[in-house]
Amino acid sequence: MVTITGIDFKNPTMLASGIMGTTGASLLRIAECGAGGVVTKSIGPEPKAGHPNPSMIKLECGFLNAMGLPNPSYTEFDNEIKTVRSGTDVPVIASIFGGNAEDFVKVAEGLADSEPAAFELNVSCPHAEGYGATIGTDTCMVESITAAVCDAVDVPVWVKLTPNVTDIKAIGKAAQNGGADAVVAINTLRGMAIDINSGYPILGNRFGGLSGPAVKPVAIKCVYDLYEALDIPVIGVGGVSTWEDAVEMMMAGASAVQIGSAVHESVDIFSDIASGIELFLQDKGYSDVGDIIGLSHEV
Ligand code: DHB
Asked: Residues enclosing ligand 1, CB less than 6 A?
């Protein structure tokens, strides 16, 4: 078991915010498959249809997606959270987004009644106009949005950071100064793919967020830097698809790992990774996962 920001997780794996978190039923399925926690798809202040197709493509090195933050808005999604909560004890974290602090507060307050274990602020969507691409790179916005949500809710607030910045430590510190209980790193890396026959960018939105194995080394470095710069826990996400990846992320400084792209290969990934970590700890003679968190900073 691991405890992060006062929440107990039966193992250090969680579903990352994304496509598998769009309904209560899919979140429940992932929880039943062994995830230590589940994070919803990001929910906003108004219903949003999202970007035109194609909105997700598979590349050799991962996925490129620009869904466009499709969601039914907080007024509809509270029922989805209630569905998961009524079927499992696995903590449900509500990912939320908005264009400014008022939006974030409105969504957080609107979902509070469904009692998520924590809120994860998506200030880092790489492409949705007016949302993460602009606010998550601005230390003042990150600090003020974080502070506003922390004031408005009485559960932990996690802030998901973008790697599309020169200095992720500065953004992490802004979240910490705003009162964040943890940071989550990284959201997707901005990317593009072009069809060479037509010359058109393939995604309907032209560009999107890259996830999967290609981004793992970027995520490891960001987690490593944040662990060094901050006093709050860092939750690692980006290209984790094996228990070895999870151990590496934890050695960089992650208290737990989130898994997104690799879930599309198998829903058993959470229990596979959790047992792989356990066996590794036993094999190496560690008594607890705490023994490997940030280990790479000590050697
Ligand atoms: C979307 C949101 C994200 O935060 C991200 O990293 C990639 C895609 C989206 O809904 O388009």
From this structure: 65-69, 122, 125-126, 187-188, 209
